[in-house]
Each structure stands twice: as C-alpha cells, then as structure tokens.
TrEMBL record:
Catalytic reaction equation(s): prephenate + S-adenosyl-L-methionine = carboxy-S-adenosyl-L-methionine + 3-phenylpyruvate + H2O
Pfam families noted in UniProt: Methyltransf_25
Subunit-level organization: Homodimer.
Gene: cmoA
Annotated binding of S-adenosyl-L-methionine, by residue: 42, 67-69, 120-121, 135, 202
Family to which this protein belongs: Belongs to the class I-like SAM-binding methyltransferase superfamily. Cx-SAM synthase family.
InterPro entries assigned to the protein according to its UniProt record, in alphabetical order: CmoA, Methyltransf_25, SAM-dependent_MTases_sf
Protein name: Carboxy-S-adenosyl-L-methionine synthase
Residue ranges of every copy of the Methyltransferase domain listed in the record: 63-161
Function recorded in the entry: Catalyzes the conversion of S-adenosyl-L-methionine (SAM) to carboxy-S-adenosyl-L-methionine (Cx-SAM).
Lineage: Bacteria, Pseudomonadati, Pseudomonadota, Gammaproteobacteria, Oceanospirillales
One GO process term, biological-process aspect: tRNA wobble uridine modification
Keywords: S-adenosyl-L-methionine, Transferase
Gene3D superfamilies: Vaccinia Virus protein VP39
Origin superkingdom: Bacteria
Length: 247
C-alpha cells in the first residue's frame, strides 16, 4: 500500500550516527503524521490559506506552492474554492513527495487544475501568478540562496499578488529563544515524541533546517521588493507572514 500513511517513528530507536534529515521515502511514508505532530499551528495555517486566497486571488489566477510536499496546500485550496477559481502548480525536489502528491490530487480532486512538478525552486522559470505559497520551505534552502529566490517571486507576482511565507524561526534574544525552544519540545512531548526522538531529530536537522529571525524574514521580503509584509500567525517558534505586491 504505497499511499498508506504511517506514524512517525523515524528517530525512535538509538542510531549510531544520525544522518542528515532528508525528504526520502521513509519520511514521505509518515509525513502527514510527522508534520501534524511537529509543526505547531500547521492545520490552522492551511485553513487560513484558503480564506486568504478567497480574498486576494483574482478568479482563475495561478498559484505556486513551492516545496509542496504531499500537496496539502493544494488540497486545502481545492476543498474551499470552485474548480475554475484558480490553477495550481506544486513544486518539490523530492521525487517520492511529487509522486504521492500527484496521486492524491488525481484521487481526491480530479476536477481541479492541480499540477505537480519535480524541480528545484531556485532554478524554475516562474510564470505570472496571483499567489505564491512557501509553507516551511525557505528554511531548507542555503541562506545565501534565499534573497535571490524571493526577488524572483516578487517579479513573478502580478499586481495585487501575495506571498505567504511560513517558517520556523529563531529569536535573537537568547533567553526568549531558549524559552520558545523548550516549550516547543514540550509540545513535541505532548504529541507523543520521546526524549530520544526529539534529540535525534534535532541533530538530523542541524545545518539542514537553518532558521532566520522574524526580523530577518521581513528584511528579506523588503529587500526582494515587497513594499509591505505582516506577521499574521505565530505559535512558539513557528510563524507565517504575508507579503503584498502593490496593485
Ligand atoms: N530546493 C528545493 N526545491 C524544491 N523543493 C524543495 C527544495 N528544498 C526543499 N524542498 C522541499 O520542501 C519541502 C519542505 S516541507 C514543506 C511542507 C509543505 N509545504 C506543506 O505545507 O505540507 C517542510 C517540513 O517538512 O518542515 C520538502 O518536501 C522538500 O523536499
Ligand atoms: O520537527 C522539527 O523539529 C521541526 O522543526 C519541524 C519539521 C517537520 C517536518 C520535517 C522537518 C522539520
């Protein structure tokens, strides 16, 4: 059963050497459970994406979902908007993610126009769009590649277009940072992760998920050309921003 979804137990046994985290077959098989138990507010962010799209998207506009994983944002939009309201392109570098996202869209919303591409979002030739979603993806790019991508997305957005940027963040203040990280680990414990799982995953994500501060994210958006950005959601060290292109 290739489309079954399993409980995330990837870091539940002691590993001699914890490998760098990667979006491989093993992660894909438990990804919905992993992201739900590991990202505070993930469900609320997805729910709000459709409401934001309903307010900001011109009828029939194009939406990019960059680092779409299993296409959860596409599914949320298709669940809330009629078939002709938007065209969606999900992009992901992981072949296992792309294959499963395509299958899910074909099974669950064949009437909507939902495409998935296997590509590196740093190298894509972007078409004009009304909305771009970066839901917990920019944090996986090398920091030196982030500004160039955001500038290209600003250029691809149509007047009045919006970018949604969700990220894990770090606090510049050490005490605030420690408090948020400790409460995040409490959140993981409350969701059934053991000390070993929390600590091995932390090691696996080192130098793979490199968080920015909230100020740095707003700075990057301004640098890319966006005249206005806002933090619309925050839950511990997980946040979502919206950036507006002038109409
Ligand atoms: N250079 C790249 N090009 C394309 N994809 C990439 C690249 N680097 C990483 N990815 C992809 O970005 C995704 C990040 S997960 C996004 C969750 C999703 N948005 C969700 O709303 O469920 C976040 C998380 O798991 O915390 C993975 O699928 C990677 O393969
Ligand atoms: O689990 C973590 O520590 C996170 O930061 C969230 C996460 C969720 C899914 C894949 C990678 C990171």
């Amino acid at each position: 059963m290739s489309d079954a979804s399993y409980r995330d137990a990837i870091f539940s046994t002691p590993l001699d050497r914890v490998a760098r985290f990667s979006f491989d077959e093993q992660v894909v098989a438990c990804f919905p459970d992993m992201i739900r138990r590991s990202v505070p507010g993930y469900g609320q962010i997805l729910g709000m994406l459709s409401l934001i799209a309903q307010r900001h998207l011109r009828h029939g506009a194009h939406v990019y979902d960059l680092g779409c994983s299993l296409g959860a944002s596409g599914l949320a939009l298709a669940g809330a908007l009629p078939e002709d309201a938007f065209r969606y392109t999900g992009v992901d570098l992981s072949p296992a993610m792309v294959e499963r996202a395509q299958q899910t869209f074909a099974d669950e919303c064949p009437q909507h126009s939902l495409q998935v591409m296997e590509a590196d979002i740093r190298q894509l030739d972007y078409q004009p769009s009304g909305m771009v979603i970066l839901n917990f993806t920019l944090q996986f790019l090398p920091p030196e590649d982030r500004d160039a991508l955001l500038a290209r997305l600003y250029d691809a957005l149509e007047p009045g277009g919006v970018l949604i940027l969700s990220e894990k963040t770090i606090d510049a203040d050490e005490r605030d940072n420690a408090w948020r990280v400790e409460r995040y680990h409490d959140f993981k414990r409350a969701n059934g992760y053991s000390e070993m799982e929390i600590s091995q995953k932390r090691t696996a994500l080192e130098n793979v998920l490199i968080p920015d501060t909230l100020d740095a994210l707003h700075g990057r958006l301004a640098q890319a050309g966006f005249p206005r950005s806002m933090t619309w959601f925050q839950y511990l060290n997980f946040t979502s921003l919206i950036a507006f292109k002038e109409s």
